[in-house]
Write a structure and sequence with these properties.
- This is Pimeloyl-ACP methyl ester carboxylesterase.
- Helices cover 39% and strands 18% of the residues.
- The protein is of the alpha/beta class.
- Strand 3, helix 1 and strand 4 form a beta-alpha-beta unit.
């Protein structure tokens, strides 16, 4: 990762560029580097911020989607960002939805890609073979359309996380929190513009999830990324970035 992580007042984040603020939210097993092509492209026109979600720092008893959403809202206030565009992948999208539902006045627009919040088919309730490197590699490959995206470095990072007891307990707690916190009944209240950018071959949050989000979010658009799994900004930035660019131009430059 070529961007330096900044530490300020208990927050850890990447910041680059100037202009309208874009806040990028990573997923449960996501790395900041997943957003590198997005940061590279938008930093010339926008103020891009990527907070590290405190998945391994918050008290276990309070760890959940709602506590992460409170953290993100505090970060927005701490940085005095005013209204932001939230862009979230997987769990990050879910967190963005919770922030938006609670503080719609702070969010100008929302972008969801492979977001949880309705349904997800992730690791399931446990890691029955978490000591098996091959099993973890298969699970990471499952995330993408092209298994080659699951590099050894990426698999190593996930393998390390799920074999560290203190980490795996938190990962499972958050995964269960995301499954329990179904947002179907809250989505009609989110009236700001929402762009759904979805991998057509996403097996974690399948295409029907995107279609349901589109149906339930009153001011949403749905954009498909072909030959792509659960993380379009990482697997197909060549398609994800133009979609995001067009949406931002429409929302922010009108």
């Amino acid at each position: 990762m070529k961007y330096e992580v900044i530490e300020e007042d208990g927050f850890n984040f990447i910041e680059a560029g100037e202009g309208e603020p874009l806040v990028l939210l990573h997923g449960l097993m996501g790395e900041l580097s997943n957003w590198e092509p997005t940061i590279d492209h938008f930093k010339d026109r926008y103020r891009v911020l990527v907070p590290i979600l405190p998945i391994y720092e918050l008290p276990l008893l309070t760890l959940g989607v709602k506590s992460l959403a409170k953290y993100v809202h505090k970060f927005i206030k701490f940085k005095k960002l005013g209204q932001v565009v939230l862009v979230g992948n997987s769990l990050g999208g879910h967190v963005g939805l919770v922030v938006t539902a609670a503080h719609q006045e702070s969010v100008k627009a929302l972008v969801l890609t492979g977001s949880s919040g309705l349904y997800e088919n992730a690791f399931g309730g446990s890691f029955p073979r978490r000591e098996s490197y091959d099993y973890i590699r298969e699970k990471v490959e499952f995330t993408f359309y092209d298994p080659a995206i699951a590099t050894k470095e990426l698999v190593d990072e996930v393998y390390k996380s799920v074999n560290e007891r203190s980490r795996v307990i938190r990962i499972l707690a958050l995964a269960k929190s995301a499954i329990r916190h179904n947002m179907a009944k809250e989505l009609s209240k989110i009236t700001i513009p929402v762009s759904l950018i979805w991998g057509r071959q996403d097996k974690v949050t399948p295409p029907e999830v995107a279609e349901e989000f589109h149906q339930l979010l009153p001011n949403s658009e749905l954009n498909w990324v072909d030959k792509c799994g659960h993380a379009p900004m990482m697997e197909r930035p060549d398609v994800f970035i133009p979609y995001l660019n067009t949406f931002l131009d429409r929302i922010l430059l009108k």
